[in-house]
Amino acid sequence: MKAKNNKTVFRAYWGWNDDKEERWLSRMARAGWHLTAPRGVYYRFEKGDPADMIYRLDYQRPGKSGRQEYLNLFKDAGWEHAGEFGNWHYFRTAVGDGPVPEIHTDLESRIAKYRRLLGFSAIIMVAVWAPLMSSRGNRPSPSAFWDVFRGVQFACALLMLYMIVRLGLKIRQLRKGRTGKEAKRNRVRHSS
Question: Which candidate, 33, 42, 40, places its Cα nearest to that of 6?
Fold first, then answer.
C-alpha cells in the first residue's frame, strides 16, 4: 500500500492567537508534516523526516516592489519562507542551540504587526457594517433569502467587531507587559 505523502488539515485560528498557531505548526514538523501551503482555514502538508522547526507568522503587506526585499531580509536572518495567505507570511527555521529565534526582536515591531491586522479588520468591519446599517429602513420585499442574507451580514459584522476588540486587548496586553517589566527594572535599579 502506498504511503500518503500529502495531507490537508482544516484548522481555523484567530490573528491574536498566532503564537498558538506557531506552536501547532512546530508540532506538525516534529511529527514529520511540513507546511507547503497555508490557505486560510486549511493547510497543506508534505510528509518528510521529523524535524525540530520553529515557525513564526508575520502580518505584512510589503507590496510588489518591496516583496523581494522583505523576503530577503528574513532569508538573510536564517528564516525560510514556508508560504503565505493573504497578508500572513509563514516563516520557519531549524531549532538550534541557544534561545528560540524571533522575527520580531522588539516589542514595538510586534505591536506594529497587530496594529496592521487591526487596521485591516476595521476596514472590513466598516465594509460589512455600513451596508447593513444603511439599508435598515429600505428593506427589499420580504423573503427568506433577504432575512438569511441580513443575518449572515450581521453575524459577520459582530465577528469583525469581536476581532477588533481582541486585537486591541492583545496590543494592550503587550504594552502592559513591557510597562510591567520596565517598572520592575526601575525598582531594581533604584534599590541598588
Answer: 33
Q: Considering the entire predicted model, what is its pTM?
A: 0.78
> Is residue 38 within 8 Å of residue 88, measured between CB atoms?
yes
Domain limits at 77?
A: 6-94
Q: Which residue has the cell 523581494?
A: 68
- Same domain for 17 and 67, yes or no, is yes
Q: Residue 96 has which C-alpha cell? A: 538550534
Asked if the structure places residue 79 within a domain, the reply is yes
Helix (H, G, I), strand (E, B) or coil at 7: strand
Distance CA 139, CA 37 (A): 42
* E strand or H helix that includes residue 33: strand 33-39
Domain boundary among 44, 68, 94: 94
Burial string for 134-156 (b: 16+ CB within 10 Å, else e) reads: eeeeeeeeeeeeeeeebeeeeeb
Do 89 and 39 fall within a single domain?
Answer: yes
Grid cell digits, residue 32: 514529520
The phi and psi torsions of 87 (rounded to 5 degrees) equal -100, 5
pLDDT tens string 11-50 = 988 888 898 999 999 999 999 999 999 998 899 999 999 9
CB atoms within 10 A of CB 21: 21
